[in-house]
Design brief:
Blueprint (H helix, E strand, L loop, with lengths): L13 E3 L5 E3 L34 E5 L5 E5 L39 E6 L7 E6 L5 E5 L4 E4 L4 E3 L8 E5 L7 E5 L4 E4 L4 E4 L7 E6 L6 E5 L3 E5 L4 E5 L6 E8 L2 E6 L4 E4 L4 E4 L8 E8 L2 E6 L4 E4 L4 E4 L7 E8 L2 E6 L4 E4 L4 E3 L9 E8 L2 E6 L4 E4 L4 E3 L7 E7 L5 E8 L5 E9 L2 E4 L4 E2 L2 E8 L2 E6 L4 E4 L4 E3 L8 E8 L2 E6 L4 E4 L4 E4 L7 E8 L2 E6 L4 E4 L4 E4 L6 E9 L2 E10 L2 E10 L4 E3 L10 E6 L2 E5 L4 E4 L4 E3 L7 H4 L5 E5 L3 E5 L5 E5 L1
Antiparallel strand pairs: 1-2, 3-4, 5-61, 6-7, 7-8, 8-9, 10-11, 11-12, 12-13, 14-15, 15-16, 16-17, 18-19, 19-20, 20-21, 22-23, 23-24, 24-25, 26-27, 27-28, 28-29, 30-31, 31-32, 32-33, 34-35, 35-36, 36-37, 36-38, 39-40, 40-41, 41-42, 43-44, 44-45, 45-46, 47-48, 48-49, 49-50, 51-52, 52-53, 53-54, ...
Length: about 675
């Protein structure tokens, strides 16, 4: 379906003619071929035309006239022509005017949202949590992520924003709930769906506090910004400082504390704000909480803890120097502080002591709770911890192994496959089954690397992988089936239980007839990475060096594509509408994305810039297709490709969150990728 291993070396005998078809040459005995300008990796070092300026025919990054990332085509003699203008990209959902038309994110794709399906609540950094006495809880975070704990499981909520959310609060009894975030984002939940309010400012908002009645709220943000909610609208003001404010808490609507940059400490007395900065260093305060107006704690960077006793702020000495991001408690002798590298500290009335958590080294960003035996912490990579008196427990759920393929299971459900290593670095297959109730790992173990999956039904599923591995699921267990080959298999697809194809290394093609697998003549020796079709006499397979072969019911025939791209996936929408995606080789190893389309008569390469290799593609129709490229998902409307809205996942995981894509008639578009990520797109 797609290629994830780097081929160590190409055959010395591979070269290419100018029309994209393969020819064979014989190098001097004992000497590898020399790199020449031809759009290929001749010497097998993983780089294309690396002795030259660029890889012939590839797209080369440049800067457009309006400062956005554009591209130029590398010429046949491996250089970028000084006469060629930097081409503008299509609009992408990223708050940037990519195509230089004076509009930002104006395309329809930017109105959609991603919903996390696995693992839950998400891989987004969670910044704040708000538990309720009924046993439910809410968490918000990067990319507009909103998740709800219903007492037994997490559910991703449809968010009206893709802006990072930094704070959430409400009265103890429940709605209304308020959430705030970057660029003046203010959201409100009244019991149905989250809606976006109009804020009088566009600065970043970092925290919100709500009084016991839910009729008054205070939000704080950059440049000393303070917003007040009066029950119907937000009104803007400042806290008497120009410092950024990161935390807010109130003893009442007339006694509110805010903290922020350069350790600024602000207080509202019901009529005005006063600000003081008794500490002159460059530190930051990030969170504030109190049991009363005369017992308030503020925490911040470098392990700082300050306490207000009703008269003055004083520093509390700690052994830890980890950054502290939030503070919360139930009373004067029961206070928690959370911070970087899984740090959790507890004040029991005599001393601040560290507490072990299950967060590992993931930073903890937000705290909340409903009582001494119900304390919650959230943080990086979707971390959720809960303390109920016996120790901190992880509250995330769902398989988190890397996933490489996802398919619909006729009759209901989904199937995804991937990989994981055991404690001795042995490679095992990860199989996860999905439904509307969630995703679960298959406990049946398959040793080795599995590449792709296909299912005829809940009791008839197949997976293929390296060294000719083929396994079949009968509804109870997985059984290995003889493939008749030891070559690596990269893809599997079928029309019905008695007509299934597998493709792989060195042009390998196999067919299952309901009883056995039979080898076919594919007419190519290139590695094949995907196989799919529309009818028994209309099937396509694609692979390295622009290889495309087609089955017309009689024979497999090679197509001339005039492309040097390694083709990783194919999506036939109709006999005259086939989309192929892959990787355009680059001089420095990893290349850019490539898209080819068949119109029934010829192949043509899309003249657009895709900064990363395209890994998988699905076509709903000729004018509605989706492709994934590791960090992005792209939509094709029949004319142009547009990157969908981002997920908000941090850079650590974002680069491979989208590895595979499928369109399910009941659920719509779903993607699978690194760390078990499964997301659903809501247009």
């Amino acid at each position: 379906m797609k290629r994830w291993r780097t081929v160590a070396a190409l055959s010395w005998a591979l070269a290419a003619s100018c029309d994209g078809s393969a020819t064979h040459t014989t190098p001097d005995e004992g000497q590898p071929p020399q790199e020449v300008c031809n759009g290929r990796d001749d010497d097998g070092d993983g780089h294309c035309d690396d002795a030259y300026e660029c890889c012939a025919g590839s797209a080369v990054a440049c800067v457009t006239s309006c400062g956005t990332a554009g591209w130029q085509r590398c010429t046949a003699d491996c250089r970028v022509s000084s006469a060629e203008v930097c081409r503008k990209p299509s609009e992408t959902c990223n708050d940037i005017d990519d195509d230089c038309d004076g509009q930002t994110d104006e395309v329809p794709e930017c109105g959609g949202r991603w919903l996390w399906r696995n693992p839950l609540p998400s891989w987004n950094t969670l910044s704040a949590v708000w538990p309720l006495p009924d046993g439910t809880a809410w968490a918000v975070g990067a990319g507009g992520a909103i998740a709800r704990w219903d007492g037994s499981a997490w559910t991703a909520q449809l968010s009206p924003t893709i802006e990072d959310l930094r704070g959430i609060a409400g009265p103890a009894g429940g709605p209304p709930l308020f959430a705030v975030g970057l660029h003046g984002t203010t959201l409100r939940f009244e019991g149905g769906a989250w809606t976006r309010d109009t804020a009088p400012v566009a600065v970043n908002l970092h925290a919100v506090w709500v009084d016991a009645t839910g009729t008054e709220a205070v939000a704080v943000g950059d440049q000393g910004t303070v917003l007040r909610w009066n029950g119907s609208d937000w009104f803007g003001g400042t806290a008497g400082t120009a410092e950024d404010l990161f935390g807010v808490w109130g003893a009442s609507a007339d006694d509110v504390f805010a903290v922020g940059g350069h350790r600024v400490l602000c207080r509202w007395d019901g009529s005005s704000w006063t600000a003081q900065q008794p500490y002159t260093d460059e530190g930051w305060l990030e969170g504030v909480w109190g049991s009363s107006g005369s017992n308030v704690y503020a925490v911040g960077r470098d392990g700082w803890v300050l306490r207000f006793d009703g008269a003055a702020w004083r520093r509390v000495g700690l052994a830890s120097e980890e950054d502290l991001w939030d503070v919360w408690g139930t009373g004067a002798s029961d206070v928690y502080a959370a911070g970087s590298r899984g740090t959790m500290l507890h004040w029991g009335g005599a001393a601040w002591l560290p507490m072990p958590t299950a967060a590992g080294t993931s930073g903890l960003r937000g705290l909340g709770g409903t009582g001494a035996r119900d304390v919650w912490a959230v943080g990086e990579f979707g971390t959720v911890q809960r303390y109920q008196g016996g120790g901190w427990l992880a509250m995330e759920h769902g398989p988190n192994d890397d996933l490489e393929a996802i398919v619909t299971v006729p009759g209901g459900g989904m199937l995804a496959v991937g990989r994981h290593e055991d404690t001795t670095s042995n490679l095992w297959t990860s199989v996860v089954w999905g439904s509307d109730a969630g995703w679960r790992a298959d406990l049946w173990s398959i040793r080795g690397q599995i590449r792709d999956a296909w299912a005829a039904g809940p009791d008839d599923a197949w997976v293929v992988g390296w060294t000719g591995a083929i396994h079949r699921f009968d509804g109870v267990a997985w059984t290995r089936v003889d493939s008749g080959t030891t070559r690596d298999l990269e893809a599997i697809w079928g029309l019905d239980p008695a007509l299934i194809y597998a493709a792989g290394q060195d042009g390998t093609l196999l067919r299952w007839d309901g009883a056995a697998w039979t080898a076919l003549e594919s007419s190519t020796d290139r590695d094949l990475h995907d196989v799919r079709g529309l009818r028994p006499d209309d099937i396509w397979a694609v692979g390295d060096d622009g290889a495309v072969v087609h089955w017309d019911g009689i024979a497999w025939t090679g197509h001339t594509t005039n492309s040097r791209a390694n083709l990783l996936a194919v999506a036939p929408a109709a006999a005259n509408a086939v989309i192929v995606v892959g990787e355009q080789p680059g001089t420095s190893g990893a290349g850019t994305g490539a898209v080819l389309r068949w119109d029934g008569a010829r192949w043509a390469e899309d003249e657009e810039w895709f900064p990363e290799p395209m890994l998988d593609v699905v076509a709903v129709s000729a004018t509605d297709a989706y492709a994934v490229s590791g960090a992005a998902t792209w939509h094709f409307d029949g004319y142009v490709w547009t990157a969908l809205a981002t997920t908000g996942v941090g850079r650590t995981f974002a680069s491979d969150i989208f590895r595979a894509v499928v369109h399910d008639p009941a659920r719509g578009l779903l993607t699978a990728g690194g760390h078990g990520a499964i997301l659903e797109w809501r247009p």
